[in-house]
Fold this sequence. Notes:
This protein has four helices and 15 strands. By secondary structure, the chain is mainly beta. The chain has a single domain, classed as SOS response associated peptidase-like (hypothetical protein yedk fold, Alpha-Beta Complex). Strands 3, 4, 7, 8, 11, 12, 13 and 14 form an eight-stranded mixed sheet that branches. The protein has a five-stranded antiparallel sheet with strand order 2-1-9-10-15, with no helix packed on it. A two-stranded antiparallel ribbon has the order 5-6. Strand 9 and strand 10 form a beta hairpin. It starts with a strand and ends in an 8-residue tail after the last strand. This is Abasic site processing protein. It holds the Pfam family SRAP. It is an enzyme of class 3 (hydrolase). Belongs to the SOS response-associated peptidase family.
Amino acid sequence: xxxxxxxxxxxxxxxxxxxxxxxxxxxxxxxxxxxxxxxxxxxxxxxxxxxxxxxxxxxxxxxxxxxxxxxxxxxxxxxxxxxxxxxxxxxxxxxxxxxxxxxxxxxxxxxxxxxxxxxxxxxxxxxxxxxxxxxxxxxxxxxxxxxxxxxxxxxxxxxxxxxxxxxxxxxxxxxxxxxxxxxxxxxxxxxxxxxxxxxxxxxxxxxxxxxxxxxxxxxxxxxx
Length: 224
C-alpha cells in the first residue's frame, strides 16, 4: 500500500516530460511537493475531451461516504488512495474510471514503512543520472460525487494503482507497490483499450530501482 509519495519535478520539466502543451498546463508556479499525503493535492496528467494531454491538480484518493458504525452519523468521506491492479476492471469503485479515465501520476519517489513504534521509512526511486529521476505511476481519476463535495476542496480526485511487490520493495512491504509505467507505455495507458491497459499493470523491474533514503521518522523526501 502506498500512502505517501513525492513529486518534486519542476512544472516546466514535467510539462516537457509528458508532452503537455503550454496552454494545457494548469499548475501555475506550483512548488515541488516533498510529501503528498492522501486527501491532499498533487499534479496529474489526463486527457482533455479532445484527446490532448493536460496537467491539472487533483486531491489524492477517491471519496466515498463514511458512516459511523457506533452512531450511524455521517463522518468525513473516506479516501481510497490505492486501487488493486487485479480489481480495477471489476470493482464498482474503479471500473468506470479504469475504462474511461486513466491518468499518469508524476512522482520522484514513494515511501513504504516497515515495523511499528517506531516504523522505519524507506523511500524508493528510479536509478539514473540524477538523484531522483521523475517517473509516472498508473492512476485513475474521477469527479467527486456531488453529495460529497465541499466548497474548500478540489472536485477532482485521483488514485494510484498497486500491484505485487518486486524484489527491492518486498522486504519492506511484502505485498504491494505502485505500478510504475515505462515512458514508452504512457500513450497506451492513456488511450489504449482496457485489455491493453491491463497488460501494463506489472511491477517495475527491481534492477532499475534503488532505495534513496531510509530511517526512523523520515516523513518527507529530502532530495538527498
